[in-house]
UniProtKB/TrEMBL annotation:
SUPFAM superfamilies: P-loop containing nucleoside triphosphate hydrolases. Transmembrane segments: none annotated. Keywords: Plasmid. It comes from the Bacteria. The keyword Transport does not apply. The lineage of its organism: Bacteria, Bacillati, Actinomycetota, Actinomycetes, Kitasatosporales. This is AAA family ATPase. It comes from Streptomyces yangpuensis. Residues 12-198 form the AAA domain. PANTHER family: COBYRINIC ACID AC-DIAMIDE SYNTHASE, P-LOOP CONTAINING NUCLEOSIDE TRIPHOSPHATE HYDROLASE. Pfam families: AAA_31.
Length: 277
């Protein structure tokens, strides 16, 4: 296999990844899916797909699906033996809940964790092959990765992705999660997916007002990573985000300044990833 080839990788496939939990990784995926869905309804992009590679199923749950009662899941695709067949993701796609109508989901369940010890040959390429022929040039897939160092699920997502965004809270978890995520991303770029683009390290769940630690961490990230640190794409911390997560509705269903600020941030990140405005 020539790993430099990216044949069939149509459409944008944007992954959300950090190697620390609690930094807003799944929240970012849901926010991107929400504003992408709004763009799709406006005719600016095609179909919005989501793929949840985190066995905890946080992204799946926010899209209104019960992770304990799924008729099929991403685990079925990765556990199969497709022998390189393309487009098989269509067989295990689910429709998101009514509030998220129009979004198609490769859902996560706890059993997905079993794939980490699966010794099947080329398992890490099954998501990419599965999406090929399903995600077309005008479509967008949002991929949520688990917060762990490498592993088969993370590598599967990074091989399938065209772009990756690294959310980082302005604290030690955010700093370490970003550093370690970049290490894994660079290994994948050097081997299986050289065309993978890092959109940036994005400040996440940023509180209002002055934060001495936040200022120090932000400066460290800017000094260390230069233009990869995108404070222009910062995602603010607002309670409306937790409210929509609990209600399992997209942020685009809300009004007011806080919701608008969050939507603007997510829209800006999609634009930075080259998704049509």
């Amino acid at each position: 296999m020539d790993f430099s080839e990216r044949a069939g990788m149509a459409g944008k496939r944007v992954a959300s990844y950090s190697e620390k939990g609690g930094v807003g990784k799944s929240a970012l995926a849901a926010g991107l899916a929400a504003v992408a869905r709004r763009r799709a309804f406006a005719g600016r992009i095609g179909t919005v797909y989501s793929a949840d590679l985190d066995p905890r199923g946080t992204f799946t749950s926010e899209l209104g699906l019960d992770t304990e009662a799924l008729p099929c899941s991403l685990n079925d695709l990765l556990a199969a033996d497709p022998k390189g067949e393309k487009g098989l993701a269509a067989d295990v796609m689910l429709e998101a809940a009514e509030a998220w109508s129009g979004v198609r989901v490769l859902a996560a369940e706890r059993a997905l964790a079993n794939r980490e010890t699966d010794q099947a040959t080329a398992l890490e390429f099954r998501l990419r092959s599965g999406l090929d022929g399903v995600v077309t040039d005008d479509d967008l897939a949002v991929i949520d990765l688990p917060p762990r160092a490498g592993g088969k699920l993370v590598v599967s997502g990074l091989i399938a992705a065209t772009h990756v965004v690294i959310p980082a809270t302005l604290d030690e978890d955010g700093r370490v999660g970003a550093r370690e995520a970049l290490d894994t991303i660079r290994q994948v770029q050097e081997t299986y997916n050289p065309g993978l683009q890092v959109v940036g390290i994005v400040p996440s769940i940023v509180p209002g007002g002055k934060s001495t630690l936040g200022d120090v961490i932000g400066k460290f990230l800017a000094d260390t990573y230069g233009p990869l640190y995108r404070d222009d794409l910062a995602i603010p911390r607002y309670s409306i985000r937790q409210q929509t997560r609990f209600a399992r509705v997209p942020i685009t269903s809300q009004t007011g300044k806080e919701a608008t600020a969050l939507m603007t941030a997510y829209d800006s990140i999609l634009t930075a990833a080259g998704v049509a405005e």
